[in-house]
Amino acid sequence: MLYRFVTEVPLRWVDVDSEGVVNNAVYLSLVEQARFLYFEHLGLLADRKVPFVLAEATVRFLRPGRLGMRTEVAVAVRNLGNTSFRMAYEVRCGIEVLAEVQAALVFVDGALRPRPIPDDWRQAIAAFEELVPPA
Question: Is the pLDDT reported for residue 35 higher than 60?
């Protein structure tokens, strides 16, 4: 799977259990940080406000992460809907994939009701990911 954005997201001492294995809940924190960096890279978070919420996440654990590993997260938007979009992630250590994550996110207004994806976001994401609009 092609990922156009990859960023290092370091593990912290607090992320591991007494055996030195990364806690499974930490993977969502790693992808959350990578998601923020992805949209910052696209220039869409100048005001530091995130205009969407996480609606769903699925994690597939492939290998245990351990303290001391140099971890990076590959990030991609896979499709854009009207109010929501889907993202894919790989949490990696070198060439080994530790976990695969799929997420659905929804743009919301001030009352947390779904709202259309803003045009500037749609255009920036589609251009970066080379997404073809539906015919």
Answer: yes
